[in-house]
């Protein structure tokens, strides 16, 4: 089962496009061999790895949005196209939403840090002697 090991290694290394393309090629070759029982089990394991890769791609996109690496980004785009994640517009919307969420998360973290340091320096919920409900921004 060298192919299965190669596929699992590809997933572990987050080489999604490579892994998905290899699954697609392997499935085509299995289809040409016919309907042998042991090939059905191998095909099922390919389907399982494919499903796992599809799930991992979304979380990997979130990581790329937090820490952008061009090669990783292009690999994910290719992987999305291989799994048929909709047309280009749908894929662009997914990527844009991910980056926008990361900007929102970062903004929240910065504002939260500011409030905790400047408004509530002693880490109490009483901001610098002012009534918390009357705090003006």
Present the secondary structure layout.
Blueprint: H1 2-12, H2 16-33, H3 37-66, H4 70-82, H5 88-119
Helix pairs in contact: 1-2, 1-3, 2-3, 2-4, 3-4, 3-5
Q: Could you please describe the fold and organization of this structure?
A:
The chain has 137 residues and is mainly α. The chain is 76% helix and 0% strand. The N and C termini lie far apart (63 Å). The relative contact order is 0.09.
Question: How many strands appear in the DSSP assignment?
Answer: 0
Radius of gyration, in angstroms, nearest whole number = 23 Å
Q: Give the termini distance in whole angstroms.
A: 63 Å
Q: Based on helices, strands and strand pairing, what is the structural class?
A: mainly alpha
User: Can you give the mean pLDDT?
Assistant: 79
Assembly category:
single chain
Order of helices and strands: HHHHH
Low-confidence stretches: none
- Helical content (DSSP H or I, runs of 4+): over 70%
Q: State the helix count.
A: 5
Report the sheet-strand fraction: under 5%
How can the largest sheet be summarized? none
Shape verdict = elongated
